[in-house]
């Protein structure tokens, strides 16, 4: 009898320890919002918006409204599916349920491959930014250091990853808030410099200097700056309460769109859009007339933190997608293993090998060829949004029957409108020679992934089922 009570108490204690251990690996909804901001707001915004402004002029503000609205529609759909049917595989699991295993396979590997290529481009960019201070240090040394640091953060576990990504997000939000406040003071004449010629008439006057075609062709670049939104859907599996997913997503998107729009408005107010060039951050161009000490170094640090946190977030998401692929038999089964901290270490090691190959190619291939491949990666990332929205259109009726659960706003109009906006943005790539080639390469990669399923994995599944 005594032994029975001892065993019972041991079981109880062990259960409490497991629960305590499990609680430590969860993240709060506000951390999910910050992880989203950290994963989305990268070098593509702080540096890459120069090309969008040059292409669209002040109408870039309308472009960001369209992209922000579309991002909300995508999260609206993903949020409903995540709350009503929590799946560790997130979007690829829903694609599988809606349109069969081949769609889940294609979606998952599209995301993994695009994430891998985007990570390699972020690491090359990070290394280039570091040469601003250390011009004689070879790029490959910085690439190895950033890769090791990024993998190290992911190996710390979900909870620590959430804290670090939240910190990076706070840095980026604080940067834009300070810039917006500074821009407001310039707008109202509190701060003035003799070299500054404000151009607010350009912002509100000639919105379409390059016509509607200018905005249309810039949409693809604008959409790229929202590309990391799917990370929120994947990371939502680590939330304490799945009901907090809509709260986290809405807070994230409102904050992000407001930051983007206000900061770009003040950039265009401080400097004429014609003076902005893709070779320099538009924020540096806007602030250059104020002769702020060490401004180049300050923004270099900000761009490095932005690119690094985006890379870390991408690594987290593609390793989790790989686990989902492994669990469903669409990747080697061994890749689903996790350690005591919930880290998919085998999936991370595979990603490390893939990243190493990708970085080597980035140094060996001519710049134009590498640009085609990274553009293709961005296009695949956005095309995955179409799969998410299409999956939502198919699965929503089954979720709508459940009372008391999260209902997506505006179904089916929002999902249909989202698909139209995404296809509109991607078609804008046809106006640019490099982006046009990148679009064709992305379609080629998708065909190759689908053929791999038909030739290799479908045969394996059929053999297993016999």
UniProtKB/TrEMBL annotation:
Pfam families membership: AA_permease (PF00324)
Domain of life: Bacteria
A GO CC term assigned to this protein in UniProt: membrane
Biological process terms in GO annotation: amino acid transport; transmembrane transport
Domain annotation Amino acid permease/ SLC12A: ranges: 32-462
Keywords assigned by UniProt, alphabetized: Amino-acid transport, Membrane, Transmembrane, Transmembrane helix, Transport
Subcellular location, record wording: Membrane
Membrane topology note: Multi-pass membrane protein
Annotated TM spans: 29-53, 59-78, 109-133, 139-157, 169-191, 215-236, 248-268, 298-326, 347-366, 372-390, 411-431, 437-457
PANTHER family (alphabetical): GABA PERMEASE (PTHR43495), GAMMA-AMINOBUTYRIC ACID PERMEASE (PTHR43495:SF5)
Protein name (database record): Transporter
């Amino acid at each position: 009898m005594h032994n029975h009570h001892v065993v019972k108490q041991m079981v109880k204690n062990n259960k409490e320890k497991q629960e305590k251990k499990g609680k430590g690996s969860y993240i709060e909804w506000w951390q999910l919002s910050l992880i989203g901001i950290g994963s989305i707001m990268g070098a593509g915004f702080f540096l890459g918006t120069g090309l969008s402004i040059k292409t669209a002029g002040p109408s870039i503000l309308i472009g960001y409204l369209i992209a922000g609205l579309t991002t909300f529609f995508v999260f609206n759909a993903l949020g409903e599916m995540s709350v009503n049917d929590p799946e560790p595989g997130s979007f690829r699991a829903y694609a599988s349920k809606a349109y069969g295993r081949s769609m889940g396979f294609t979606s998952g590997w599209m995301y993994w491959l695009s994430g891998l290529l985007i990570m390699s481009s972020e690491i090359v960019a990070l290394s280039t930014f570091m040469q601003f201070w250390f011009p004689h240090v070879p790029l490959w040394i910085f690439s190895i250091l950033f890769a090791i640091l990024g993998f190290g953060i992911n190996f710390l576990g979900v909870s620590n990853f959430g804290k670090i990504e939240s910190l990076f997000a706070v840095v980026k939000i604080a940067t834009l808030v300070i810039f917006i406040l500074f821009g407001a003071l310039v707008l109202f004449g509190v701060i003035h410099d003799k070299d500054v010629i404000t151009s607010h008439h350009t912002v509100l006057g000639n919105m379409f200097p390059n016509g509607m075609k200018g905005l249309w062709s810039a949409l693809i670049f604008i959409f790229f700056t929202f590309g990391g939104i799917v990370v929120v859907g994947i990371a939502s599996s680590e939330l304490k309460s799945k009901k907090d997913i809509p709260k986290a997503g809405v807070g994230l998107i409102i904050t992000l769109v407001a930051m983007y729009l206000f900061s770009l408005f003040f950039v265009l107010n401080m400097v004429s859009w014609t003076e902005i060039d893709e070779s320099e951050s538009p924020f540096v161009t806007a602030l250059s007339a104020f002769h702020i000490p060490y401004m180049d170094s300050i923004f270099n640090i900000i761009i490095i933190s932005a690119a690094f946190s985006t890379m870390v977030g991408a690594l987290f998401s593609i390793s989790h997608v790989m686990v989902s692929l492994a669990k469903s038999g669409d990747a080697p089964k061994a890749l689903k293993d996790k350690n005591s901290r919930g880290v998919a270490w085998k999936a991370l090691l595979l990603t490390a090998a893939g990243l190493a190959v990708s970085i080597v190619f980035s140094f060996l291939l001519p710049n134009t060829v590498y640009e085609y491949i990274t553009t293709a990666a961005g296009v695949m990332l956005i095309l995955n949004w179409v799969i998410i929205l299409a999956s939502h259109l198919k699965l929503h009726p089954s979720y709508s029957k459940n009372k008391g659960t999260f209902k997506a706003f505006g179904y089916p109009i929002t999902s249909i409108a989202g698909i139209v906006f995404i296809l509109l943005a991607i078609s804008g790539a046809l106006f640019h020679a490099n982006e046009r080639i990148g679009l064709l390469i992305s379609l080629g990669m998708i065909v190759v992934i689908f053929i791999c399923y038909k030739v290799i994995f479908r045969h394996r599944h059929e053999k297993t089922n016999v």
